[in-house]
Design a protein that fits this description.
Elements lengths: L1 E10 L5 H11 L6 E4 L4 E6 H19 L2 E9 L8
Amino acid sequence: MKLVAEISLYPLNLDYIPPIQAFIDRLNTYSQLEVHTSTTNTIVSGDYLTTMQILAEEMQRSHQEIGQAIFVCKFLNGDKMSSQD
């Protein structure tokens, strides 16, 4: 099963761009993920369990490095993205 996750990261500090970029850069190191970044969010897709595991590890790492930060996430079963009759 495929997962598509839309993620926005809001570090609760004044210097917010470097932690966001670091999170995105780390996601881009995983060959198992497809990562597309826009100005307001990052779309990550891949195998459901693998993607969730990677996101959990990287979100935890961000919290450890940044301190207080908000992640806003939406998850979609990527197998159901195409219209079916």
